[in-house]
Amino acid sequence: MKNIINNGNTKLILLHPYIQKQTNPNRLWLIALVSVFTIASLLTLVYTRESFHTTTTTTTTITATATNHHHHHEPLPKSVIKALIHYAATANTTNHMSQTDIKQISDVLKQCTTPCNLLVFGLTPETLLWNALNHHGRTVFIDENRYYAAYVEEKFPEIEAYDVQYTTKISELKELITSVREQTRNECRPVQNLLFSDCKIGLNDLPNQLYELDWDVILVDGPRGYWPEGPGSISAIFTAGVLARSKKGGNHKTHVFVHDYNREVERVSSEEFLCKENLIKSSNDLLAHFVVERVVDQGGRNQFCNSHPAAS
Question: What is the pLDDT of residue 278?
Fold first, then answer.
């Protein structure tokens, strides 16, 4: 309502506001319902985004893991292998292997369908090479010199090396062979866990886990054996033969390489414990390649070879 007062030229307009405002109860319920619906929609949106983010992250992680797993088993490129073998064979060091012998071992490592378990007796000029060629596999080195083994591990942390004490002497070769023959049904049997053996030439002081591994390739290139009082490789060759025959899983065949096969202790020990019938190849009498099968029948658990050669 407007009240207009005329006083000469002055006009006064009075406005009377509508003070009392009625509230409709139905409108309050409507506002409440709309608010609840809005909050529920926001919560649904947030949950959906989080769920999508989690699913995407999980899918990405699984894909990356699968990709890494695929690459994990990829072998070294052939060009890299050739380069490694070439420079290792032509290095300015003494007592290194020839390119032919290195390639023979490399070819066997490439045949592994899964990452190889490679056991090497002796830390030699080829130590880094064997570790590199056994790409993604496990390579373990055994040496008689604890100080040199510790030095190598400190300088090259990727190398896994252990030291052992050899009790044999090259000058006792004939007596040692005779002793083992007398114990093939007891402490020196071809199939056993050497960790619990008291066989004189068996290595029973390696880390426990190494006796449980299924070795695919074993290389005997140590210990030293070029003087009568030296330990020679008789214990290493015997141990390699037992580990190969005592495998519980993996490939039923083990490739055993013996370097310096032209020397008496390597040749006699190999013929005694790895056996001529298992000899695949020997290159210039320097590297001998044996393939020894896991023993599963009871008849072959008490002898190494079909026929024993005469001990020298």
Answer: 97
Strand-pairing partners, residue 280, are none
Average pLDDT over residues 118-128: 95
Determine which helix (DSSP H) or strand (DSSP E) holds 11, and give its type and residue range. strand 10-15
pLDDT (mean) for 179-196: 94
CA distance 215 to 238: 15
CB of 285 within 8 A of CB of 263? no
Q: pLDDT class for 67, splitting at 50, 70, 90?
A: very low
Residue 202 burial (10 A CB sphere; 0-12, 13-18, 19+): buried
Residue 274 phi, psi dihedral angles, 5° rounding: -105, -30
Q: Which helix (H) or strand (E) holds 179?
A: helix 173-182
DSSP summary character for residue 94:
S
Element spanning 288, H or E: strand 287-293
CB-side exposure of 288: number of CA atoms within 13 Å?
22
CA pair distance 275, 288, nearest whole angstrom: 11
Q: In which residue are the tokens 């506001």 written?
A: 17
Task: Give dist(CA 244, CA 298) in Å, integer.
Answer: 16
Q: Which helix or strand (DSSP H or E) is residue 287 part of?
A: strand 287-293
Q: Is 95 helix (H, G, I), strand (E, B) or coil?
A: coil
Residue 252's CB is within 10 A of a number of other CB atoms, namely 13
